[in-house]
């Protein structure tokens, strides 16, 4: 009986050991699979992190290129710009002509004048943007204004020759040649059709005023007496009717941009001057001024 029990215990113990051994083997074999699964999950997490990093990198590239594009388009019309301007006047600055004035019954005076001004002026133009559509511009242009004036005084003297009264006319004349510098300073408000952040050429309209000042007046005078003898020259300075003048300005123009960022601005202006610089006899400064300007600005 005792031997039978021992045999059963021995068999049970062996079975228990076999079961525990198989369980241990299963646990040991199952561990690598869980480790691999964890490694796979870790790898997936790293892959996700890599994708997230790549996504962030892509987002960073997008955010870095977007401002540069915005800046480039936003500087088409700069907040401040300045450039050189060439101004051309299609019309004469001074009106010339001729007239005859009867000073007395025996004396008449003939006046004949002509324009001697140049049509070209030059200077600078500066602009400041106030809003996306409105800007103010101011310029300073140097011009050369001048004229020539011939004055002939005719004197009629009755002379008795052989019992007959004959009118004898004697003449004396003077020639004046006057040159001067004038500075035109226009100040205008411009309205641009396009927003200053929008690419492409744009047109603008402008309104404002202008101030003119005359300087460096130089005159030379020559004379011819009744016998035809000429003398030259006496130098001096003619007296202007007004040292300065004020005018009203209206105009329109276009703005282009070249590949290197230079602003090309052609425009047409009309100025109505309220008073004349020179106004004597047949010499009169034009009240209406038409002007074509060409500006290269940066």
């Amino acid at each position: 009986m005792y031997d039978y029990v021992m045999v059963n215990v021995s068999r049970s113990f062996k079975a228990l050991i076999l079961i525990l051994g198989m369980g241990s083997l299963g646990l040991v074999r199952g561990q690598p699979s869980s480790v691999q699964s964890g490694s796979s999950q870790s790898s997936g997490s790293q892959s996700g992190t890599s994708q997230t990093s790549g996504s962030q990198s892509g987002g960073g590239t997008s955010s870095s290129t977007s401002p540069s594009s915005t800046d480039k388009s936003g500087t088409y019309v700069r907040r401040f710009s300045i450039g050189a301007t060439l101004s051309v006047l299609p019309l004469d600055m001074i009106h010339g002509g001729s007239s005859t004035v009867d000073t007395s019954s025996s004396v008449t005076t003939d006046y004949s004048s002509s324009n001697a001004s140049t049509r070209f002026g030059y200077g600078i133009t500066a602009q400041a943007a106030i809003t996306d559509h409105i800007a103010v511009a101011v310029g300073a242009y140097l011009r050369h204004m001048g004229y020539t004036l011939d004055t002939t005084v005719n004197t009629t003297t009755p002379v008795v020759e052989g019992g007959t009264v004959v009118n004898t006319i004697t003449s004396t004349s003077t020639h004046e040649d006057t040159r001067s510098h004038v500075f035109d300073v226009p100040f205008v408000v411009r309205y641009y059709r396009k927003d200053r952040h929008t690419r492409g050429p744009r047109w603008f309209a402008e309104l404002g005023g202008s101030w003119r000042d005359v300087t460096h007046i130089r005159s030379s005078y020559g004379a011819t007496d009744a016998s035809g003898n000429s003398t030259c020259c006496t130098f001096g300075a003619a007296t202007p009717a007004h040292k300065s003048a004020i005018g009203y300005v209206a105009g329109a123009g276009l703005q282009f941009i070249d590949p290197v960022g230079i602003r090309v601005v052609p425009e047409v202006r009309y100025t109505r001057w309220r008073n004349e610089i020179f106004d004597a006899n047949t010499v009169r400064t034009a009240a209406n001024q038409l002007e074509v300007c060409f500006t290269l600005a940066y």
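Helices lie at 2-74. The radius of gyration is 48 Å.
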